Amino acid sequence: MTGPDQQADLSPASIDAIVAGALAAFADAASLADLKVARLAHAGDRSPVALANRAIGAIPGPERRDAGQRIGAARAAIAAALAEREAEIGSAELEARLVAERVDVTLPVALGPAGAPHPITALMDLMGDVFTAMGWEIAEGPEAEGEWLNFDALNFTPDHPARFTSDTLFVEPLDSHVVMRTHTSPVQIRSMLDRPLPIYVVCPGKTYRADEFDATHVPVFHQIEGLVVDEGISLAHLKGTLDHLARSMFGDDIETRMRPHYFPFTEPSAEVDLKCFVCHGASVGNPDAPCRTCKSQGWIEWGGCGVVNPRVLAACGIDTDRYSGFAFGMGIERTLMFRNNAADMRDMVEGDVRFSRSLKGMAR
Ligand code: PHE
Fold it and tell me: In the prediction, which pLDDT does 4 show?
């Protein structure tokens, strides 16, 4: 190789050869990596053209200008060829990569298993829909509830057994007087305190009791509460409303009955029963065909109901001469058991999507 201190050959033929060598090397480069090697060899600091450039100074007299022009043109030609080839290879490589990495968005993909709304949620929505279709509103309240709203305002006496810690989950510290609501009935009080009259509300939601967890009990369960306060409301409106709900849930053939009972916040009070959907009453007085579902009673308990106790209305500042009301509350889990033959409550809390999927659509 010709060093700057040596007498360099800067003849036109020699410069042309340098340029031709560089152009051929660039053309041969098949990748950007190849081109980098060719660039170092033919356009780098120690390339023939760089050395020729450095040799210009040593040339005497008028020949220096000619040589300078030739080498300047040669360097420009090499730089242009390099840039051109770089662009060519670059776009070819990009093209190849785009082809190689192409994603066909129309290909079918393996979808993960689809979930399903939980049957309790679906059933609560469905029961809510029965009422909103009649113009009622959905009311809500907190699950951690003031003891006063869960018990006192509902006319429970201070020594009522439902308040015992064996039934009610108290939130610590005990003197906070906060309980996990044992029923959705405190929403009755909240509705009467918050809403203008007349009131037509249902409240679906979670409720808590200190129960063991087994096939028929869960410590966290769901209820739907209904409350009406208006002028001229009687037990007959309650019966008609419950029958409408029962038919919407179980079909037009369902029979209901009201059985006298006691709740502190309703007077009179009743439990509402459904005609046994398994034996349809055939097991009653018939020891040859006992029914496990209704224990041969012919009826199964669905929920509680009654005419709102005037003491409760008065506690909420409602004029009891003018207004009366009814209320009811029933378990969503029980409703699901009866409606969809879900025999074991544990299935309802374990969160196995197969249970939800098996009832998908059935809840509607
Ligand atoms: N809150 C009662 C219970 O949980 C049910 C009920 C609601 C009774 C409304 C009467 C009126 O057992």
Answer: 45
Q: How far is Cα 35 from Cα 245, in angstroms, rounded to an integer?
A: 81
- Judging by DSSP bridges, how do beta strands 220-231 and 199-208 pair with one another? antiparallel
With a CB cutoff of 8 Å and minimum separation 6, the contacts of 39 are: 26, 82
pLDDT of residue 202 exceeding 90: yes
Please give the model's pTM, rounded to 2 decimal places: 0.70
The one-character DSSP state at 177 is -
In sequence order, the 6+-apart residues with CB closer than 8 A to the CB of 174 are none
For residue 169, pLDDT beyond 90: yes
Q: How far apart are CA 287 and CA 289, in angstroms?
A: 5
- The alpha carbon of 349 and the centre of ligand 1 are apart by a number of angstroms equal to 23
In the sheet with 299-308, reading across from the earlier edge strand, the strands are: 137-138, 199-208, 220-231, 323-331, 299-308, 266-275, 256-263
Task: Give the pLDDT score at 353.
Answer: 85
User: Residue 359's Cα: distance from chain center in Å?
Assistant: 19
Domain boundaries, given as residue ranges, for the chain: 3-100, 119-358
How many angstroms separate the alpha carbon of residue 212 from the centre of ligand 1? 21
Residues facing residue 296 across a β-bridge: none
Pocket test for ligand 1, best of 188, 224, 263 (most atoms within 8 A of CB): 263
Topology adopted by domain 119-358: BirA Bifunctional Protein; domain 2 (3.30.930)
| Whether the Cβ atoms of residue 82 and residue 88 lie closer than 8 Å to each other | no
CA of 3 to the centre of ligand 1 (A): 105
- Cα of 298 vs centre of ligand 1, distance in Å, is 22
As for ligand 1, residues whose beta carbon falls within 6 Å of it are 183, 185, 225, 263, 266, 303-306, 327-329
